[in-house]
Design a protein that fits this description.
single chain, alpha/beta, Rossmann fold, 2 domains, four-stranded parallel beta sheet, 13 helices, 8 strands, 53% helix, signal, metal-binding, Manganese ABC transporter substrate-binding lipoprotein, Bact_metal-bind_prot9, metal ion binding
């Protein structure tokens, strides 16, 4: 064999190997929040590489600022997932110039509009619809692994059954329970549980970074001091002097406090996180 033919053969082989690697390379998905990234990884499995921009439960997501590193993280992504309806406007701005990227606006996908409570991931329906959307997009981008995505999606749906069962059990036992919160982070889950949520005006003001009215503050204080609520749900991740004072007031008057976060704790999955939050609610109500 001549040297030229040998070189040509090696080159052709290398091209085939590189092409095979390119086809087998995992699909990069970037999610604004880590709970969406977790669902994407559960559905995509080994065929995706998933990164989340906000993953630290100690960070206030409302004060998040985009860095050049964050902007670079979406440069090679094929799918981007964000919450929408004002919760992560910075992500929508980042994605504006990426026309070839598959963009999943979770709020729009699930029929939510501006002005709705943006903490939509606390509604399990949202995550089921998101998992379906992810499966469909991955199947189109990577039809060779369509069966794997279908299998993973079915496994995710099945893993949510215990959460629905637990919600049903709590709702049957405690529907109508009156509760309050420093912010409406748990609002959709409260609705699933059938709880009556007081002081919504106060909560929305805190969420929107505006000052609650004097009457709203007084009403919440009265609910705590007069034990009109079963517990105070306290957003551990988004705090200020006013919410800290409310927590102290609840403690002073021996009103139970249930903590919650907006971002999923590290080292867990969405299903485990929601179960932990429901355990906190259940433990307080069963005392």
């Amino acid at each position: 064999m001549s040297l030229s033919r040998l070189v040509s053969g090696v080159f052709a082989l290398s091209v085939c190997l590189v092409s095979s690697y390119a086809l087998a390379a995992p699909i990069h998905i970037v999610a604004a929040e880590n709970f969406y990234a977790d669902v994407a990884k559960q559905v995509g499995g080994d065929h995706v590489e998933v990164s989340s921009i906000i993953s630290n439960p100690d960070v206030n997501p409302h004060l998040f600022e985009v860095s050049p590193k964050v902007a670079r993280s979406i440069s090679d992504a094929k799918i981007a997932i964000y919450s929408g309806i004002g919760y992560d406007d910075w992500m929508a701005k980042l994605l504006a110039g990426h026309d070839k990227l598959v963009k999943i606006d979770v709020a729009s996908m699930t029929g939510h509009e501006d002005g709705d409570n943006p903490h939509i991931w606390y509604d399990p329906h949202t995550m089921l619809l998101l998992s379906l959307a992810i499966k469909q997009e991955l199947s189109q981008l990577d039809p060779a692994h369509k069966a794997a995505y279908q299998h993973n999606w079915q496994a995710f749906v099945k893993s949510m059954h215990p959460i629905w069962k637990r919600i049903d059990t709590l709702r049957q036992k405690y529907a109508g329970t009156e509760v309050t919160a420093t912010e409406p982070v748990f609002g959709y889950m409260f609705a699933e549980l059938g709880f009556k949520v007081r002081n919504l005006g106060f909560q929305m003001a805190v969420m929107n970074d505006t000052d609650p009215s004097a009457s709203q503050i007084k009403a919440l204080h009265n609910d705590l001091t007069e034990h009109k609520v079963a517990f105070l749900l306290y957003n551990n991740q988004v705090t200020d002097p006013m919410t800290d004072q409310l927590k102290a007031l609840a403690e002073k008057h021996k009103v139970a406090i249930v903590g919650a976060t907006e971002t999923m704790p590290k080292g867990t999955h969405y299903q485990n996180w929601i179960n932990q939050e429901l355990t906190g609610v259940q433990n307080v109500l069963e005392k």
